[in-house]
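Protocol check, entry for the methods section draft. Step 1: assemble the input record (protein sequence plus ligand SMILES). Step 2: submit for complex structure prediction. Step 3: store the structure tokens unaltered in the notebook. Ligand used here: magnesium ion. Step 1 record:
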Amino acid sequence: MAITFEKVNFSYGAGTVLAQSILHDVTLEMPTGLVTAIVGQTGSGKSTLIQHINGLLKPTSGRVIVDHFELTKHTKEKELVKLRQKVGISFQFPENQLFANTVLEDVMYAPLNFGATKAEAKLAAEDTLRRVGVAVDLWHKSPFELSGGQMRRVAMAGTLASNPSVMVMDEPAAGLDPKGQTELLQLVLELKSLGKTVILISHQMDHVVAVADQVVVMHEGRVVAQETPEKLFNRDAAWFKKMKLDLPKAGQLAEKMKANGIHLSRRPLILNELARLINTEVSHE
Ligand SMILES: Nc1ncnc2c1ncn2[C@@H]1O[C@H](COP(=O)(O)OP(=O)(O)OP(=O)(O)O)[C@@H](O)[C@H]1O
Ligand SMILES: [Mg+2]
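Step 3, stored output:
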């Protein structure tokens, strides 16, 4: 399912004296079956933006189109049920998303809500919990007894269990250990291989280069770039400073080399590429 934002503006508390204008003329395209990463400094509007994809927030003006569904400020709550079945969001703070007495019940909730029988919902929940790496001995515990990383996985399973066509993940790596982070990136690629449209918000540029087909950069509520990782991470280093964004590790190393007089023909995205460039472009005495 493709997603299009057309001149979306959004204010929290629109129409009140406390109205705070957050998104400004956001226009972008997230194509079907691709991974779009959204990056930008804290407070730039990433979480606000993605909550428009399933109508949790509605544009103050402009429109969001998800497949054939058009979302505007006039869209009614009951029209959103179908959309929410197709768009799964795993939120930035998983503890706000969990609510049931046990992990298994929590993950069964969405499939049950969307019309599955109890047996079907249980199968879907068990399958999804296995897929995101939640050990069986945790399934009957309260989700609130779990560690941050496990909570994150359960919240993710709760979103995936209803098999959405669009999967939005808001900083899913937060709270995961390095192994968990690698597994998460594998999950993103697996979802992509199943033809799903994936949207990943991340502060970790190495994650972005590992999975993203395109990157959207937000700055003060505006989209300031939408392009491939190759193009983005070859922009001027000063631009990254201004956007308060990091470069991937390989790019940071290449910048350090440059400061020491060693120039490469392009800025590498991953360490293997850096090693290759050093090998072919830096003379060995
Ligand atoms: N419910 C709310 N009511 C009022 N203002 C809000 C609300 N949620 C967020 N904001 C404000 O909107 C702006 C954008 O916040 P948002 O959470 O979308 O940023 P973000 O890019 O996701 O940041 P982070 O990287 O820290 O998660 C911030 O100034 C924030 O204070
Ligand atoms: Mg956020």
